[in-house]
């Protein structure tokens, strides 16, 4: 999941061909309303994944992990909504949000076909990959592009908490093997 | 009647007895950081953890002595009953770690 997005981000950072540099410039132009939309969408995606896992997961560590994801991502998104309201900003849909949402719904459908240990493993593996991608995007794109100081600070708190999620997911994944 | 004298006795009593046993130590959890990360206290002291985050946290002793739950923006207290050095962390965010040094 999100392979294309993460590949695009990695490419814009690591490579310097003219086309990719153009991509990087386009990425630099993300506005605060777009950044807010991307961050919120990314949260909703993980909330939906956690809700699916709460219904389908069998392993107790996987269930507990899903509970943690739901609690933390809902808290961050609640904070994000309060902030955009306070700043009188309307989150603006954009290509990155759309690509994220599309890939996430494909992944939900894919995971829905799995059960038991196979589901647990696939869900946790995807959580590792997903948090890696989102954290990379926060670090290299969203946080540096954010103009408003409060938005930037919320994204930084998000990064910190999601880095913990990534470690947690990696730990659960290693226990499942 | 010597109310003045009685009052001064009460004051002395308060000054000598209470502080030795009733210290309250505040520890904050903010932005996923516990601070101070190391606290010295005595048996009988009260620890108050203040959660300033929008996230739920816990103060969970690695040795099983305590497991305090801290809902978002709430605080909770614990009276220390046993001496020893106790490491604790947040079960939800295990990168949050701290230590209590509890003297008898």
TrEMBL record, chain A:
Coiled-coil segments on the chain, per record: none
Keywords recorded for this protein, A-Z: Signal
Signal peptide, first to last residue: 1-26
Domain DUF4142: 31-171
Protein name: DUF4142 domain-containing protein
Keyword NAD listed: no
Organism name: Bradyrhizobium zhengyangense
TrEMBL record, chain B:
Pfam families, A to Z: Cupredoxin_1
Annotated InterPro entries: Amicyanin, Cupredoxin, EfeO_Cupredoxin, ET_Amicyanin
Signal peptide limits: 1-22
Start and end residues of each EfeO-type cupredoxin-like domain: 10-100
Key words of the record: Signal
Name of protein: Cupredoxin family copper-binding protein
Organism, scientific name: Bradyrhizobium zhengyangense
